[in-house]
Specification:
heterodimer; A: 55% helix; B: eight-stranded mixed beta sheet; five-stranded antiparallel beta sheet
Chain lengths: 109, 578
């Protein structure tokens, strides 16, 4: 580039300045405030969700434990039935067992 | 002025950012770098709350109608701990705790614990019920803490306990499955320690992946077994009575579907209650059906017979000369009654349980073929879903002495686990296939999806023709020989075989007065729903298995026919009016 052209107004160095309609500091402050609120909100939501999940899980486990007690009683009853000596109770083995054709799908239940 | 204000704002902002970064850095070090140390410190101060409640998947029995019944589940209640620093009156506290707690440490141990003033938390009682725990908490005894607790519970107590297994503290601080299904499926049953107090920042920094795909939900779940609780109870009751009646060393029984390998019941005696292991001999914790090997005796004869029929070296009409006793390599082999039968068909070998006949069949088969068949039947583990499965002792298959093959033909000199034995005998029942015995049928994932477990491919070892011919012999044994024919069920064909083996001495010989009894049977004979294997080790005051196990087998057979409404396969009155 010829040195004479550097003096042309187009190439003359100028100090550029942007004038925004609001303060950058205020913008950052606002963004920080919004992020902080969102962050706290997220923590609250996650903790509440975790608390509800744990509470529900505990409730399920408690119900399962209650069911297990009933299942224990059922199994104890089955064991008692299996252990019963029916002959000693006065019952006898059937002398005849007759099979009949099923009249419905539920007849053999 | 404006520029000065701006620079101050920037300074404050920079300080705030620095402070925030500092806090994050500090949290990073506390929760991630030194997290374990702080957690340990917290646990030392208050151990129960910090570690969360014990959690683990359930194991279920399956009733015949598909209803799931818990075999292993969780119980919820309370534990009691003391703080020796604030405990006022140890004697009074112990009295109140002992009134309500089912398992509390001894008085002396309690007083000693109360004297440890440098500690703040010592557990003194466990497994309090909800009602008792709350009642104790309401008393607000100074220095006594009543805290939530969850523990493993087995509602069936001794029911299938050696198959279900137990949890215990392994090498670490966590309860893990150490035996049975608890150990076999520990990765599915165990739960990772999620709690309300999870490490939030650690999750944020290092666990982002789980937000997208939670691998645990595809792995963790409950185990559903094919064990039927009423069938299991019946079998366990029968086995217990056999063992107690004959003062045996041990007894056991398995009921299985011969076509699929699904096990309906597996009971042994002696056994244990998984809810209370304080007095249990540790050797009982293993599963004898996969860990113990036995010489089963004559229930091996149907396998020898089927091998020979399959190889084509004999037919059902082949005859041989039974001399009562033979001498092989200077050793004498005799029938159970030492009596000769003369020229008889091979069918009688099964029906009369003739050792001389079985030896003759083994000789006809030849050592190479015998080895091939028996290696196919017993040469590998069954792959059952139980830990610590043992291998059969097949050393005699590698020898050249014919007497060893003769002995193996009737079940001596070859030691096998009960699961291997029922698997091999199932091959006769199901038309010639080796199936994979299994206890778990499905996994119920945490997501609620039930994933059926696919078990191994069936392996053909015998032709269907040869198995059918052997079944005819076993069927005739039940109808004509057992109880002198009184065991015959007019409407149901049942194939059976008894086995009586001499027990081996530690010197390598055999006792003449100590026996191992076994019994196998399946029904309906030609398309069986169930195969039953029973055994009792060293019964006292009795010699033959037909005396110890037949009534229990027949009771179980009648029970299963009624319980499952197994349709009759013969003797059915087709003229019955509709």
């Amino acid at each position: 580039m010829p040195a004479s052209m550097l003096g042309h107004p187009f190439f003359r160095m100028r100090k550029l300045r942007f004038h925004l309609p609001f303060s950058v500091v205020s913008l950052c402050g606002g963004v920080v405030a919004v992020l902080a609120v969102v962050y706290i909100g997220l923590i609250a939501a996650v903790m509440s969700y975790a608390a509800l999940t744990i509470e529900f899980s505990q409730s399920v486990r408690n119900d399962e434990a209650a069911v297990a007690v009933l299942e224990g009683q059922y199994l104890a009853t089955v064991a008692h039935t299996a252990d019963t000596d029916y002959a000693a109770e006065g019952y006898v083995v059937p002398t005849v067992k007759l099979f009949v054709k099923a009249k419905s799908a539920t007849a053999l239940r | 002025m404006r520029a000065q204000f701006r620079s101050r704002i920037r300074l404050i902002l920079a300080l705030l950012i620095l402070a925030t970064l500092g806090i994050f850095l500090r949290l990073y070090f506390i929760q991630i770098v030194d997290g374990d140390e702080y957690a340990l410190k917290a646990d030392r101060q208050f151990s129960s709350g910090g570690s969360g409640l014990f959690d683990r998947g359930s194991i279920y029995f399956t009733r015949k109608d598909g209803t799931l019944i818990s075999a292993a589940t969780l119980a919820t209640g309370f534990l009691v701990a003391i703080n020796p620093q604030t405990l006022g009156d140890p004697e009074a506290a112990y009295t109140e705790i002992a009134k309500l707690a089912p398992s509390v440490i001894s008085h002396d141990a309690f007083i000693a614990a109360a004297g440890k003033k440098q500690q703040v938390y010592i557990e003194v009682a466990h497994h309090l019920s909800d009602v008792d725990g709350k009642a104790l908490a309401e008393q607000a005894i100074p220095g006594v803490q009543v805290l939530r607790e969850r523990w493993r519970q087995y509602p069936g107590m001794t029911l299938a306990s050696q198959t279900i297994g137990v949890v215990s503290y392994g090498s670490g601080n966590a309860l893990v499955g150490t035996n049975g299904l608890e150990a076999q499926y520990d990765d599915i049953l165990s739960r990772s320690g999620d709690s309300l107090y999870k490490n939030f920042f650690a999750e944020l920094f290092s666990n982002v992946g789980n937000l997208l795909v939670n691998a645990r939900d595809t792995r963790e779940g409950d185990i559903i077994t094919s064990i039927e609780p009423e069938v299991q109870t019946r079998l366990a009751d029968g086995i217990t009575k056999i063992n107690q009646r004959y003062s045996s060393k041990e007894s056991g029984g398995i009921i299985m579907d011969p076509y699929t390998g699904a096990i309906f019941a597996m009971a042994s005696y002696p056994t244990f209650d998984g809810n209370d292991l304080t007095e249990v001999n540790p050797t009982l914790l293993g599963n004898p059906f996969v860990e113990h090997v036995h010489e089963f005796g004559s229930i091996m004869k149907p396998l020898t017979m089927t091998s020979a029929l399959d190889a084509g070296v004999i037919t059902p009409n082949t005859t041989y000369n039974d001399t009562g006793c033979i001498t092989v390599s200077t050793e004498s082999i005799c029938n159970w009654d030492h009596k000769a039968r003369g020229v008889i068909p091979v069918k009688q070998i099964i029906m009369q349980s003739l050792n001389v006949g079985a030896s003759w069949v083994a000789t006809q088969l030849g050592q190479d073929k015998f080895r091939t068949y028996f290696t196919a039947l017993f040469g590998q583990k069954t792959g059952i879903d139980q830990p610590h499965e043992g291998r059969a002792l097949l050393r005699n298959l590698s020898t050249k002495e014919q007497v060893n093959y003769d002995n193996m033909s009737f079940g001596q000199g070859i030691a096998i686990t009960p699961v291997q034995m029922i698997r091999a005998l199932s091959a006769i029942a199901n038309g010639g296939y080796l199936v994979q015995p299994h206890i778990a049928s499905a996994v119920r994932l945490n997501s609620g999806i039930i994933r059926n477990i696919e078990w191994g491919e069936k392996v053909l070892v015998f032709s269907a023709t040869s198995t059918r011919e052997t079944i005819t012999m076993m069927d005739a044994l039940n109808d004509e020989i057992l109880y002198n024919g009184k065991a015959k069920i007019p409407t149901m064909s049942v194939a059976v075989k008894t086995g009586t083996a001499q027990l081996a001495t530690s010197e390598g010989g055999y006792y003449t007065d100590r026996f191992f009894h076994s019994f196998v049977g399946f029904f309906p004979s030609y398309h069986p729903r169930f195969i039953i294997l029973l055994y009792t080790n060293d019964p006292k005051g009795v010699q033959f298995a037909s005396e110890t196990l037949d009534s229990t087998f027949l009771d179980l057979t009648h029970f299963l026919i009624d319980y499952y409404a197994v349709p009759p396969d013969r003797g059915f009155a087709t003229t019955t009016p509709l």
